[in-house]
């Protein structure tokens, strides 16, 4: 028997629910924001630059990756390419939300994805599959994470400068550990071993022999291409 | 230290904002016209994690023992315990410990 679907809604009650549901994770996000602030200080990035990034870019992996490239003069093209490669995944995430969002007028649809990140997307999609139709879950989750991220960054920027020898406390590896955690901590699948290996190897070779920063693009494309080629190859093997 | 001119930083940040928000909106625009195929999904999925791998690898290869130990510790904890905060804490602890003993 098909359960009658509730209509899509967006209101304050749902938004509050989203904020409350995201609170436990937001505590972690404060810590990550703090780590970003500290890393920014020790990478020589100005406080206002880091703050603007957290306020408006609101995407931890791209912000951490940008720190790595924040030298004068800024490699704008490389920075854009890296940001694009990291964010193509958000394109898929918002695409997955389309069936839910399409009830809204287009302007509201676009406004709803401003605060879209991996965590509130995952939470909202999970609730959607359980029958929740209030989009406030998505919005509230985003608001909680954004507040935590911006607040954490501010704390990190304020206190990060007080440490003179960051290496002695292992503060220089925060960025590395964070990116590593995102890659392997999410949902590691054995099938990704080969694409990642190819990405690592090609990135390293590009790092040694190509102009600066191209290695990130080379690695990303190699990983993507290898992943697409793999299953087709396996399919052909098993078919013949 | 960063001595990049203000306008350059502003352009860079605006560029990041445009791309970050643009990709979120683009997904909706594409879906309102054509649904994405599984191969495109696979490519994008692999690419967005490979880009992080590509950033990390040279840091690990050219880093000192502390950096490498931190990578091993953080990676192991991330896979086994699935706890991001513990993962980063263990990485920092490993790096700090290594440098305490060997430098």
TrEMBL record, chain A:
It is a multi-pass membrane protein. It comes from the Bacteria. The chain crosses the membrane at residues 74-98, 135-163, 169-186, 193-210, 216-235. It is found in: Cell membrane. Keywords: Cell membrane, Membrane, Transmembrane, Transmembrane helix, Transport. This is AzlC family ABC transporter permease. Pfam families: AzlC.
Automatic annotation (TrEMBL), chain B:
InterPro entries: Brnchd-chn_aa_trnsp_AzlD (IPR008407). Keywords: Membrane, Transmembrane, Transmembrane helix. The chain crosses the membrane at residues 6-30, 42-61, 67-93. The keyword Transmembrane helix applies. It holds the Pfam family AzlD. This is AzlD domain-containing protein. It comes from Halomonas alkaliantarctica. The lineage of its organism: Bacteria, Pseudomonadati, Pseudomonadota, Gammaproteobacteria, Oceanospirillales.
């Amino acid at each position: 028997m098909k359960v009658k679907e509730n209509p899509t809604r967006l209101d304050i009650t749902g938004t509050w629910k989203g904020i409350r549901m995201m609170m436990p994770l937001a505590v972690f996000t404060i810590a990550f924001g703090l780590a970003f602030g500290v890393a920014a200080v020790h990478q020589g990035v100005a406080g206002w630059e880091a703050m603007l990034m957290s306020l408006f870019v609101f995407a931890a992996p791209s912000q951490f990756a940008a720190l790595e490239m924040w030298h004068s003069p800024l490699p704008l093209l490389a920075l854009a390419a890296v940001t694009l490669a990291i964010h193509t995944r958000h394109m898929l995430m918002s695409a997955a939300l389309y069936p839910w969002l399409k009830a809204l007028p287009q302007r509201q649809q676009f406004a709803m994805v401003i605060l879209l990140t991996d965590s509130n997307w995952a939470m909202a999609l999970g609730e959607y599959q359980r029958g929740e139709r209030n989009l406030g879950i998505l919005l509230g989750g985003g608001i909680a994470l954004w507040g935590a991220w911006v607040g954490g960054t501010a704390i990190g920027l304020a206190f990060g400068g007080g440490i003179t020898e960051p290496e002695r406390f292992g503060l220089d590896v925060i960025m590395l550990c964070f990116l590593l955690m995102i890659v392997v901590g999410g949902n590691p699948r054995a099938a990704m071993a080969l694409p990642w290996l190819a990405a690592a190897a090609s990135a390293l070779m590009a790092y040694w022999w190509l102009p600066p920063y191209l290695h990130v693009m080379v690695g990303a494309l190699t990983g993507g291409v290898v992943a697409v080629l793999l299953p087709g190859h396996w399919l052909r093997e098993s078919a013949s | 230290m960063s001595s990049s001119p203000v306008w350059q930083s502003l352009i860079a940040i605006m560029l990041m904002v445009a791309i970050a928000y643009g990709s979120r909106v683009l997904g909706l625009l594409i879906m309102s016209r054509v649904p994405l195929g599984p191969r495109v999904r696979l490519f994008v999925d692999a690419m967005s994690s490979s880009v992080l791998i590509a950033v990390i690898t040279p840091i690990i290869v050219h880093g000192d023992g502390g950096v490498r130990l931190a990578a091993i510790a953080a990676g192991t904890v991330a896979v086994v315990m699935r706890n991001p905060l513990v993962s980063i804490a263990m990485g920092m602890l490993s790096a700090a410990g290594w440098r305490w003993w060997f430098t």
